[in-house]
Specification:
The structure is a homodimer of 275-residue chains. Chain A has 8 helices and 17 strands. Chain A is α/β, with parallel strands linked by helices and 275 residues long. The first copy, chain A, folds into 2 domains: 7-124, Ubiquitin-like (UB roll); 138-273, Cytidine Deaminase, domain 2, CATH 3.40.140. In chain A, the strands form 5 sheets. Chain A has a 6-stranded mixed beta sheet, sandwiched between helices. In chain A, a hairpin with a 2-residue loop joins strand 15 (248-254) and strand 16 (257-262). Chains A and B meet through strand 2, strand 3, strand 5, strand 8 and helix 6 of A and strand 2, strand 3, strand 5, strand 8 and helix 5 of B.
């Protein structure tokens, strides 16, 4: 079977900018702040949405956004994605047009992982149909290694703060790391890249600096990933949804510490810890 | 002039829930996590949007959302807002119907303070028309007192984490404090309550635990507030927009520390600090 991969531009931009600020003692300092750019997505010349993004992986972001919002179901529906920062536009060409685009836009859920994100249509009700790999396991040394690997990673966050990072791991191996102003953009970009690389979530581990809210759990489940790790916490609805699909949620991950919120049967503790 | 205030229900719900988690040593713990509930907004029986919210101030949230998204321009356009958690719905009745509701929905900006928030229509381009009070000043002791007041406040965040808080101050006096799963919801709820109480932003101070991104700056400016304070940082576009309307941004506020990103002419430093 031949899969037609979309043709993509490669339009990453500088992610941080220097600014001069004044501190509480009146001292001028030069610091870095993260970029934030509007990127208007046109699908077959029809304006769809404007995303505010850091701009590090715009093509993967657009692809992952279209996938996670279910505007496209198969990769070969997308002929090309061309990002042009001169006009702040991503031009998407599809093979057959996007069916019922307008109708899908009508029913909209404004979710609030942290902002007011959008999920279209019937995603919430479709959660039940997702079957995560029942055999996937995560052992404690791998979990700690993942958290440590993220900590060591050179990131925009370390340089400028004010962004969220998401990373994808197979065991303790980091497969990708993407930051964005919004963590939903970061997870969409990871989804886009997974799709392009033909990666299944099956036995992968997803790490995010952001909270595990309903929307993050939905996206993780949609990507087929059984393990979500966060430096931060979990909301009630995020937990409810994770339990429904037996997704393992690990929150407050820091150093050797973590809390298991759900899916503990997928976790293999280190032996010495059995008290 | 008689202003007809909308009739509102009073449907706050429990904001946190206990859950049992397991830590890295296999110990069970009971902790609290914040609630997250869908609230579908119907305007004159027409479904508009579903907001995911903590649920602490749902009526103010809906009103502020309608205002900040510019679905309503005047308070007396809204006859009533009734929130019924049994059906996860907020029913809004307007006096004359919301004109061109569907058209306003068509052009949509998915912003990413942290999630993918939505701003409708031409809000971005309207920023220029906003004139903030040129006489407003903030002195250093007041700024430090504001940060300290927030630190002392009893909050869902302290109990359960994973929420964003927003607060409104006149001088060092806290006028309101609202938390939500998403900081955009928290700021919308503050906007709604300000509107109900007839408060102008004029000389007020807005504090948020979240980052000052473009969307937060736009909302602050729309509320007429000249001072935005954050425990966190500032994005490039947030800073650009603040400069355009001479809004004062203070980031990294913690204890006595802060950084001034813009609008320094509105700031009165303490004398002893002139080095």
């Amino acid at each position: 079977m031949t899969i037609h991969l979309p043709t993509l531009s490669d339009s990453a931009v500088p992610l941080v900018a220097p600014v001069t600020v004044v501190d509480e003692r009146g001292r001028e300092k030069e610091i870095f702040i993260p970029g934030e750019r509007p990127l208007t997505v046109y699908v077959d010349k029809q304006e769809l949405v404007t995303l505010m993004t850091l701009g590090g992986a715009p093509e993967a972001l657009v692809l992952g956004y279209l996938k996670n919002q279910r505007f496209v179901q198969a990769l070969d529906e997308v002929v090309s994605i061309q990002v042009d920062w001169e006009v702040s536009a991503a031009s998407v060409v599809t093979r057959n047009g996007i069916k019922a685009l307008k109708e899908r836009q009508e029913k909209r859920t404004v979710t609030t992982g942290c902002g007011q994100g959008t999920i279209f249509g019937d995603i919430l009700t479709d959660l039940e149909s997702i079957a995560l790999n029942p055999g996937a396991r995560l052992d404690q040394p791998t979990l700690v290694a993942v958290v440590d690997r993220v900590r060591q990673h050179h990131s925009v966050y370390k340089q400028a703060g004010s962004v969220h990072g998401c990373a994808l791991f197979r065991g303790a191996e980091m497969l990708m790391f993407i930051e964005d102003v919004g963590r939903h953009n970061a997870v969409d970009a990871i989804a886009g890249r997974m799709w392009l690389e033909g990666l299944l979530g099956d036995d992968l581990i997803f790490y995010t600096t952001g909270r595990l809210t309903s929307e993050m759990v939905i996206k993780g489940a949609q990507m087929g990933i059984p393990f979500l790790l966060s430096r931060s916490g979990v909301t009630q609805m995020g937990l409810d949804m994770a339990r429904r699909v037996n997704l393992s949620l690990f929150g407050r991950c820091s150093g050797e510490h973590f809390l298991i919120y759900s899916g503990i049967d997928r976790f293999i503790p280190s032996e010495q810890q059995a008290v």
